[in-house]
Amino acid sequence: MNCSEFENKITAFIDGDLVKSKRTEFISHREKCSACNQILDDVKSLIQSLAKVNSITTSADFLTKLHSKIEKNKFAKLPLFKRITNFTPFGFRPLYATGFVLALMAIVTTSFLLLTPDTLPKVDISKIITENKNHIKQDFQQPVLFAADYDTTDEDSIDINNRSRFDDKIIMVNKK
Amino acid sequence: MPNYQFTDEELIAKFQNGDVKAYNQLVYRYKDRLINFVYRFMNDIDKSEDIVQDTLLKVYTHCQSYKEIAKFSTWLYTIAGNLARTELRKIKRRKTFTLTDLKRDNREYEIPHIDDPSESYDSSNFESDLQRALDLLPDDFRTMVILRDIQELSYEDISKIVEVPLGTVKSRINRGRLKLQHLLKKRRY
To answer: pTM for this structure?
Structure first.
């Protein structure tokens, strides 16, 4: 057995898996080769050290975190409607609260209307229609204008063709 | 090995039938064992806890996919190992990206070399040295050494978890131990 073969057989030797002839060869090489003997000792001590390494533990809030992950996962898998109904910010369910408030408002309004029917004003619809028709007629009647209704002569304007009338006015002003 | 009233397989069967207490018992049994397994990959306690929680969450959500053809622990370690490897790949990708950026922008930046032979070895540093040495081991060797020597699982279970033949498991564990021993020796002297 050479050094390379020896190295390949170390684990089998430690586990006791070598057949008798190979085991004898292995031990014989170990006695002759100090380097291989050292490697075998090192591997044995490594295995012992690794077995003692198991020292890490999970943190104190590990289980809390795990359960919150599980809850989140459950919630994410729900259909949209269920997610809305199960949504509870600060421990409240807003959908149920809203429904409750709406129902309460409906009950209060209906009760108010049913208990005080006289307060409602009586409405004569035919009267309103007639009044509206008259208003419409008045609003849309176009004013008809005739020239005869207006005096087109302007007293202050100067009538050039009738100059004597203008002169009379000047005379009157001078005599006061 | 503690003497439990129910085996893992009985507990998962109970949980599959709706017994949440059985699930909680499994969590108590495995949470510390799993974190020791995952931590050896991640070298980060917070990330390891997240992975263990995700593993146990998967057990909760996918309990029906467990069939009693394999041991429960094998199934559990397979899930944890896969999640750890996925997370490691993500971290490595992120690191590669950051280092590429550093190369481009800050050429004077040097990554510290962790294998400094001049550094004196203290036996109390074994844990941290072991962790560094494990980080340097190839992924296949590391998984098998952790499962065999830290988690103390049987070769048969390891073979099922990593899905490689028993002979390959044994030879990889042997080579993994030799490499790990070599790396630790380099740090000591």
So the answer is: 0.62
